[in-house]
Amino acid sequence: MRPLFLYSPMLKRYENDYMNSSKGWKPISVTGTSCAFNCKHCGKRVLEGMKDGSTINSFEKEFMDAIMRGDEGVILSGGSTARGDVPIWKYSDITKKYAQKMTIIAHTGVVKSPEIAKKFSEAGVRIALLDMVGDDETIRDILGQPFTVDDYLNSFKYLKQAGMRVTPHVIVGLSKKGLEGDLHALDLLTEVKPDAVIIVGLMPLVGTKMEGSRQPSPEEMISVMREAREQFQVPVMLGCARPRGSPYLKVEKFAVDYGIDGIAFPEEETIVYAQGRRPVHLSSACCGNVVQDILRV
Predict the structure, then answer these.
(1) I need a labelling partner for 77 at 20 to 30 A (CA). Which of 31, 137, 276, 286 fits?
(2) Do 221 and 245 meet the contact criterion of CB atoms below 8 Å apart?
(3) pTM recorded for the entire structure
(4) How many CA within 13 A on the CB side of residue 173?
(5) Mean pLDDT by 10-residue block, N- to C-terminus, for the chain (297 residues)?
(6) How far apart are CA 220 and CA 172, in angstroms?
């Protein structure tokens, strides 16, 4: 029976009788709230909830605090450069010092060359996160980026070639082509050979250009999870960024019943539902760490 991994990193306030995020892995932004792009679905709002690591002193302080707390890892992120990548490597002298003491998971952004991928690897990044977008129209019109689908695919290939594990995120509801576009993003990932696939859902954030957009329905979330489970033998996860509320409880229960490998920030009812159906493992890590956790079980 497949184990079920439940995660609660420090990405938001979360607490129930079984888990809480107070001791979760920290998200640290190497750019503060700055980003070269102003994606319509994010508008830099996501960066506001991260620890500020935009200076060398603040960056190292967050690492030292994580070590003192006994954290086993950190989540490095930030805004993109105009070239597309998140410049985590600019602090590589610091990350190298801590890479043997903790797992470094990083949002890399679009990686345009093997040389940039190597910078991430040399900085000690073990697991790389990046959204997978299945059509150029969405990249251009929603993300506001001068990139292509091939640029996204090549990013994963370069990162893998540099020795990192890659965990693509597919955002259900983001594609201008609707569910068809989301499913196409999954199809494209088969040529990347990802180490895990993480399914998340569009969350129309207040203050962004998409705050009035329709979020994906529970049925759409389930459709993409089902397709991912059928296409990939590697871990398939229900990630942290997704719509919430009672109608979406069926999404989490589907994940339990259909062999999805993990859920970030599960509802307490889901935890109770999973017990007795599958072996349950609770973690304060980023859900991308499943690529390591699954090897330990």
Answers:
(1) 137
(2) no
(3) 0.95
(4) 24
(5) 95 93 94 87 84 95 94 95 93 93 96 97 97 95 94 97 97 95 96 96 85 92 98 97 95 98 98 96 97 89
(6) 7
